[in-house]
Amino acid sequence: MSRIYNFSAGPSMLPLEVLNRAAAEMTDYAGSGMSVMEMSHRSKVFQSIVDDAEARLRRVMGIPDNYDVLFLQGGASTQFAMVPMNLLKTTADYVVTGEFADKSYKEACKYGSIRLAATGEANNFTKIPSQDELTLNPDADYIHICQNNTIYGTTWPYLPQTPAPLVADLSSCILSEPVDVSKYALIYAGAQKNMAPAGLTVVIIRQDIISDPMPATPTMLSYKVHAKAKSMYNTPPCYQIYILKLVLEWLEDLGGLGAMQKRNQYKAGLLYDYLDRSSFFRPIADPASRSMMNVTFKAPTEELDAAFVKASSAAGFSNLKGHRLVGHMRASIYNAMPVEGVEALVKFMADFEKQNA
């Protein structure tokens, strides 16, 4: 069977070049006589993988020296608790712009005084609140946002202006375009969208905010512990870190995040331009808040939504059904989705429209 175009929101496509490289090194990595899956995480050869992965991530993202890079486990969902356990002293602001932003807010509420600075629930999370719509506490320990909302297909077109440290979930947009890391106190991201297979969580944290966590915090949920141990407090997600290294090599070969941004803007433009012209399909997210990674859209009726999903699957386009909470359709076009995949999808959508309009 030939490879399909996989539009899954995560775990998502990996670059074919990376998969082929991993396959070639599966049973013997760099002459070690073993797979990365088998080697000790305390070995020199694996330490070289970790060091290379961190160095490449720092280089690709322009991470300043006063930030630690942590390779952790537990997904972004564990960070929903880990952030307040480590950073909350008095109060924090949360902006709820979608399902995972809401989950992080509710989780944080278990640990202390959390203020809801804004929510997009009234407009069904189709739009990011403007700066004027945010009720921010300048003395907050931090403000938390989910920068790209995978389910609803929205992204922050700006960063909140506040003296409070900014904490952001970048799970579904990290490595898609350049970011100024210095504007964040902490970035976290599950790897399964743009970085590596599920199982790795990357945390980029400014060193001055690392301190002793709440007294009852488990050792495994302490940033201070992991930073001191340089991500080696326990066995890390070894193979995922290795794949991240290969993905970062691929990104650098393509020209880095500036080149990737142009490629992603082009892909998203192809799809949004068609949706804006179509009299059949409709984009769902507000134009000012549209995600470059997750494009949500719908047909005139739920019956046609279902027919489209069925027909697209038969034609080799996988995972175009929208999230169960919102329905309709969603095309996740992360870094590894080739331009040809988006071009083929647009052609299929146009043909479907002609047949069903």
Can you describe this structure?
The chain has 357 residues and is α/β, with parallel strands linked by helices. The chain has helices at residues 16-24, 44-61, 75-87, 99-108, 223-228, 238-254, 256-277, 302-314, 339-356; strands spanning 5-6, 67-72, 91-96, 113-119, 143-146, 148-149, 154-155, 166-169, 186-190, 201-206, 282-283, 294-298, 317-318, 329-332. The protein starts with a strand and ends with a helix. The strands form 4 sheets. It has a 7-stranded mixed sheet with strand order 2-10-9-8-5-3-4. It has a 3-stranded antiparallel sheet with strand order 11-12-14. The longest helix is centred in the last third of the chain and has 22 residues, at 256-277. It has 2 domains: 24-253, 3-Layer(aba) Sandwich (Aspartate Aminotransferase, domain 2), CATH 3.40.640; 255-356, Aspartate Aminotransferase, domain 1 (Alpha-Beta Complex). Strand 6 and strand 7 (154-155) form a beta hairpin. Helix 6 crosses helix 7.
Please name the CATH architecture of the largest domain.
3-Layer(aba) Sandwich
Envelope shape: globular
The total count of strands amounts to: 14
CATH class of the largest domain: Alpha Beta
Helix content: 25-40%
Question: Which class do the helix and strand fractions yield?
Answer: alpha/beta
The CATH topology of the largest domain turns out to be: Aspartate Aminotransferase, domain 2
Strand content: 15-25%
The total of helices stands at: 9
Gyration radius from CA atoms, angstroms = 21 Å
Average pLDDT reading:
97
In total, the number of domains comes to 2
CA-CA gap between termini: 32 Å
